[in-house]
Amino acid sequence: MKIHFRPAIVVVSLLTCSCSSVAVPRGVISELKVGPSIVEVSPSFRNVFPVKNFNRNVTTTWWETESLDESESTAAKTLQSLRDANFIVFDQGFYEVLGVDDFQSNKSVETIFEFPPGPSFANRLVHDGTVYSLECNCIFFAELHPPKEGFSTDAMPWVWRVNLNESTPVVEKVYPQPQLTVGNGAFYHDGSIYWAQEGNYTNPGGIVRMDPLTLETEVVLNNFLGHRFNSPNDVVLTSDGIAFFTDGYYGFDNFNDTLKPELANGVWRWDINTGDVRQVAGAGTGIWLNPNGVALSPGEDRLYVTARGETSADAAGQRTIYQFNIQPEGSNSPPLQLAGIFAYADAGFPDGIKVDAEGRVYGGVTGGVDVFSPGGQLIGKINVARGDVAVNMQFVDDWLYIAGRTYLYRVQLGTTGVRKY
Fold this sequence. Notes:
globular; disordered N terminus; 6-blade_b-propeller_TolB-like; eight-stranded mixed β-sheet; Neuraminidase; 4 helices; Calcium-dependent phosphotriesterase; 31 strands; Oryzine_lactonohydrolase; mainly beta
């Protein structure tokens, strides 16, 4: 299969979009505080939409809500201001995240790379598994090609690497050996990168360990007592070597490249020290279908897991982040106990998730990144370019790198990631 390749390039620009001609002045507009790049939303505006009759599809963003009244003039300026903003503030605590005083501050989201087009059989591009390695001072992430109807996805031999050793980030393709088989989520632990690879018909999915300097890989988990995993999606590891990874039906249902699943989809726990592997939350509990992203709290006592449902366009889909309490070793209790729904996304579904040093949770969704307080309150949104979807992200010090379908972004924040290197 021919691989479309673009040499390593660096593109730096401010996040922009092609907007309509509606002029949106700065200041207070219909209970919005509109600054150069930040819009603060009042509770009353958030709670009562500014037209009498309206509707919104689950695949669209808030500012694309459709007015069903004859005239849309009432909502035009307010929706335009949300559409044009780089950041939307719902709670004063989001200003601490942004590292600014108020809505009048000018802050940007940088677009640092535009991804080349995918292969002809691809329905779209997905960039996932963002992970930082101190050894190379670089970020790795995978590219996936969900196929058009009648096609199967490919196991491309490369992953993306963002080299942070230059004055500006350099984005390039690198080639793990042996290659990953549809790599997806990734996590750094004890000098190695652990990839969740979905697998395909001829290569079962599982967990692969990669040396971040040599790019040498080794399969370290690929079965549960002879059963293939369905298509492992994302993985995290505690500091003492307990891995939690998600396993959904994506390879069979969406990628058309794996055998029919023989296991319930769910969350698995793997002790890399003892080799013990077991499912600790699954579809049999009635909680979800197709778990996806995973993240750990700062104290490693809570696990956040996202679920998509059948499709992200399904109105009855889950679009949910669940919270589980991790039980201490030797407690004679199940390793995970469901604490409930942590958050429900308003656009698409939370794909990749990350946690900052204060315990806030970041979810990649349609239109940008949703930021939730440690208690699950939506406190703000980081917008990406019009029409793009934020899939996953990675903290490097106080920079948040955001991998979208079309572009790679970064924004400097007033906080850091939960991981300490």
